[in-house]
C-alpha cells in the first residue's frame, strides 16, 4: 500500500444528532490530520445526514480512520474515494466593486468564459457565484484578483460517487 | 405520585404511565436496568436526583466516594469483576471533569460504564454559569457514546440507550449529562428497554469462509501460538476458549487484561506476552508459524517494535471490533464476531494435536527465565523483601482464589506475573491507560459486586496515595477489602527506567512517605507494617483472617527491578532478562 499522501474524499452517512460533528472531527484531530474541507447536509435518505470530508493522507491511514469513524454509534456507514471515483463540485462567491464591471471590460469576458453567474448587482458591488472543480475556482480567483476582490469565500466539497452506495439496504440489514 | 393512563389506539392496548419528575425517572430507569449499587458524589446541579436517591435508598445503594475519580474507578471495579454495567454519578463542572480519568480508563479497557452528570439549567448553557463545563465536549473522545438531555421526556430513552450501548458489542463507557431543569420537570414516565440502535451494529457477522480458512491454517500449523486478550472474558467465552486450546494443544499466552480467563496453572498456559511478560511467549512470538490472536488489540506494550513483530508468522485475528483489524498488525485472516460464538463454531473444524516438540521450547525457555529471574523473585536469598514473594504468599494463603486489584507500576507487573488465578475476572487492573490511583477505589467496587470473594488490592506507595482518600469510603461502607501496599519509597517503575535509560538520574521519583499504618488506623482500619521475611507469612494470614477491611504495608527492597523487559522500541525477541 502506498505510503504517499493522496487526496481522499470521505462520505459519512450518519444520524442527525448534536455533537456528532465534534466526534467525527476529533478522530482526525487526535491523529494530527488537517481537514482540507468539510461539508454536512441532508442525504438522499430522510433523517440521514451526509458528511463530505477532504483530507490528504496515506491510504493506510485512511482505512484506519474509516474504521474509527464507522465505530461511532451514530455513524451508519463511511466510505473513502479517490478523485476518479467521484463527481464533485465546490461553490464560491466573489464580492467585487460594481464600477469595475464597466471600467474593466475584460471582467465581463472572464465571467462569460468561466460560466460564473451574477447573483446580484447594486451601485456599490456585485456578487459572482461559481461552482466547479477546485482548479476552475482557483483560476477564476487568480483572474479576478488582478482587479481587486472585496470578499471571497469558498464552500466545502460536495461529491457523489460514480458507484452506487447502498445505504437503504444497509439500514434495513442493521435492523435485522 | 399521580398515575394517568394513555390509550394506544392502534393496538387497542392500554399502557400505564406515571407523571413523575425527571430526577425520579432517572432512579426508575436505573432500577429497571437492574442497578442496585452506584457510586457518586452530590453537588448543586445533580441535587434533584440525590433527593430522589434519598427516597429510594431501600432499593438502590448510593456509595459516597471521597472524590469523583474514586466513583468512576469504583464503578469500573464493580463492572470488571461482575460483567455488569458500573454506574457513576457526579455534579456538573468539577464533579464531571473529575470522572474523566475513569471514563478514559474504561474506554481504553472496554469496561461498560454509565456515567450520569448534572448540568446547569438549559437557559444557562454556554453562559459560563457557576460550575458549568462542556462535559459532553470534554468526554466525547473518551466515551463510546454520550448525550445531553434538556427535557425530562428524553430521560428514559437516553438511559435505555446508554445501558444498551455500554454493555453490547465491545463494551465501553457512556455519559449522560442532564440539565437541572430536566431533573425538576414533570412528565408522563414510561420505560422501555433499548433493543437496538439503527446506526449501530454491536456484533459484526462472522464470515464462515474466514472461519474455515482460519481452521485450516490452524490445523496445518507446526508451531502455532495463541495470544488471547480480554475479549475472551468480555465475551464470556472462557469454556469455549479452553475447549479450543485443549483440542489443538496450542501453547497459549495472555495479555494483561486477558489474565484469569483460564487458570494460571493450566498446562497450555504459557504466560504473559509483552514488555514485562514471560520470556518464552515473547521470544517464540518471533518463531511461531501461525499467530492466533483472540480478543486482543496488539497494543504497543504487547508487540514492541512492529517492524520486527512476528514477521515470519501468518496471523489470524478473532475480533469483535472491525476497527482493530489491521490497525497495528496486518492480519492474514480476520474472523469478526463475538468470541464465544466464533470459538464455538471453530471447535468442530479443528484437528486434535499436542505439539509436544513445540511445547518443549516453551519449557526450555521457562527454565532459563526461572533460573535468571523467577527464582530470585519468589525465593530470594538476599535480606530485603521482594514484591514477588509477597504475591507467592498471597497465592498460597488464598489458594489462588482471590481477585487481585492492582494499581500501576512495578507491583502491577509483579502481580500480573505471579498472581495465581483460578477464577475468571480476577485480574482487575488499569491496562491501557495505566492509571495510578485506580486500585483502591476499583477494589471497593469489586468487593461490593462480589462480596463472597476475597478481594486483595495491591498498590505501590505512589499510586496508593493518588486516591488514598477512598479509605474513608471503605470505613463508612465497611467494605472488607484487603489493602496491600508494596512500599519501596520510590515511584519504582519510573526509577527503573531512570536507572536503565537515564544514567540513574532519579528525578522526582524518591518518595518521603507518611506513616501509612497510622493513616489507616485513623480511618479505623486494622493495619500492620512488615519489613522482614519471618513476619510476612503471619502478617498475610492475619490480613486474610480479618473479617473487616485490613491494611498491610510491606517494606520491600528499594531498588529492585522488574524483569524480563522489552525496552521501548525493541523487538519482542530482544527481551532482556537482566
UniProtKB/TrEMBL annotation, chain A:
GO CC term, one of those recorded: cytosol
InterPro entries in alphabetical order: Acetalactate_synth_ssu, Acetolactate_synth/TF_NikR_C, Acetolactate_synth_ssu_C, ACT-like_dom_sf, ACT_dom, AHAS_ACT, AHAS_small-like_ACT
Function: Catalyzes the conversion of 2 pyruvate molecules into acetolactate in the first common step of the biosynthetic pathway of the branched-amino acids such as leucine, isoleucine, and valine.
CDD domains xref list: ACT_AHAS
Family statement drawn from the similarity comment of this UniProt entry: Belongs to the acetolactate synthase small subunit family.
EC number: 2.2.1.6
Pathway: Amino-acid biosynthesis; L-valine biosynthesis; L-valine from pyruvate: step 1/4; Amino-acid biosynthesis; L-isoleucine biosynthesis; L-isoleucine from 2-oxobutanoate: step 1/4
One GO biological process term: isoleucine biosynthetic process
Protein name per the record: Acetolactate synthase small subunit
Catalyzed reactions: 2 pyruvate + H(+) = (2S)-2-acetolactate + CO2
One Gene Ontology MF term: acetolactate synthase activity
Native source organism of the sequence: Winogradskyella endarachnes
Automatic annotation (TrEMBL), chain B:
Thiamine pyrophosphate enzyme TPP-binding domain: residues covered: 407-554
Cellular component annotations (GO), alphabetically ordered: acetolactate synthase complex
InterPro entries listed in its UniProt record: Acetolactate_synth_lsu, AHAS_TPP, DHS-like_NAD/FAD-binding_dom, THDP-binding, Thiamin_PyroP_enz_cen_dom, Thiamin_PyroP_enz_TPP-bd_dom, TPP-bd_CS, TPP_enz
GO BP of this protein: isoleucine biosynthetic process; L-valine biosynthetic process
Alphabetical UniProt keywords: Amino-acid biosynthesis, Branched-chain amino acid biosynthesis, FAD, Flavoprotein, Magnesium, Metal-binding, Thiamine pyrophosphate, Transferase
Pfam families on file: TPP_enzyme_C, TPP_enzyme_M, TPP_enzyme_N
SUPFAM superfamilies reported in the protein's UniProt record: DHS-like NAD/FAD-binding domain, Thiamin diphosphate-binding fold (THDP-binding)
Cofactor note as given: Binds 1 thiamine pyrophosphate per subunit.
GO MF term set: acetolactate synthase activity; flavin adenine dinucleotide binding; magnesium ion binding; thiamine pyrophosphate binding
EC number(s) from the headed UniProt entry: 2.2.1.6
Occurrences of domain Thiamine pyrophosphate enzyme central (ranges): 211-346
Enzyme class at the top of the EC tree: transferase
Residue ranges annotated for the Thiamine pyrophosphate enzyme N-terminal TPP-binding domain, each copy included: 21-136
Signal peptide (from-to): none
Catalytic activity, reaction form: 2 pyruvate + H(+) = (2S)-2-acetolactate + CO2
Listed cofactors: thiamine diphosphate; Mg(2+)
Pathway entry: Amino-acid biosynthesis; L-valine biosynthesis; L-valine from pyruvate: step 1/4; Amino-acid biosynthesis; L-isoleucine biosynthesis; L-isoleucine from 2-oxobutanoate: step 1/4
Family: Belongs to the TPP enzyme family.
Protein name as it appears in the record: Acetolactate synthase
